[in-house]
Amino acid sequence: MTIHCLGSINVDHVHRLPHFPAPGETLQDTGYAVGLGGKGTNQAIAAHRAGGDVRLIGAVGADGGWARERVAETGLSLDAIAAVEAATGHAVIYVDAGGENQIVIHGGANRAIPAAHVDAALAAAAPGDWWLTQNETNAVVESTRAAKARGLRTAHACAPFDAEAARAVLPHIDLLAVNEGEAAALATHLGVTPETIPVPALLMTLGARGAVWRGNGETVAVDAFPAEAVDTTGAGDTFTGYALAGLDAGLPVAEALRRASAAAALAVARPGAAAAIPTRDEVDVFLKEHA
Fold first, then answer.
1. Which position among 86, 112, 139, 193 has the lowest Cβ density within 10 Å, counted as fewest Cβ atoms?
2. Which tens digit of pLDDT belongs to each residue from 147-158?
3. How far, in Å, CA of 199 to CA of 1, rounded?
4. pTM for the full model?
5. H helices then E strands: how many in the chain?
6. What is the set of active-site residues?
């Protein structure tokens, strides 16, 4: 089946720092790079490199030529990327010496995807396909509701976290992807425990402790692979994209999550977001080495 990703497309401005700045502090960076990013783009690329049939649906502004070229280089089609009046989305990313990050995003075109454009993408989807969203675009709730009504399987990555946005989309999703902190915050907002968040399936990443899946009456836990972190930007997106591609391919949950964990371990050992996402062959080699 096809994974249709209504997703953000960002130009990432990455500054490497000795440490994160304190309030009022000015720091000289130790490195600077520009790369392709956005949670939607990262997840779409990860699912594509995992072997999935993926369609990225989004928007860029008149300044978005560079971003379109980078998306095309990944092998994803540009057919469902609209041109809008708003500026192309971008992110300013600080990465400290330990590989941790702080990120500020500007939504821009990601928050101005035309409704007609989303409707056309939905019309091209087939029952049984996946509809994947994150909280970096407009039309998340409306498109997910419509996708569900058309017989698509629906998945939502609950980031950047917003409790009310998550509550609004919950009734329409089959799979919720969150990290441990997001799960705790959402559970508190809903007055439940993380284990009882009301979704058919919950995929929760636990950082260095791995990840856990709860759904269809089963709980599956996988360990994280050891990795020396260079840049954690996009690691969660890599995990989500690989996991969803594995599930779409019919892999058992444990195998899909193990492959996703391997992909995330490879990603954190490299700089950048989209550029750090490994290919399926690289994951195969990694798993053989860590059998």
1. 193
2. 999 999 999 999
3. 22
4. 0.95
5. 9, 13
6. 237
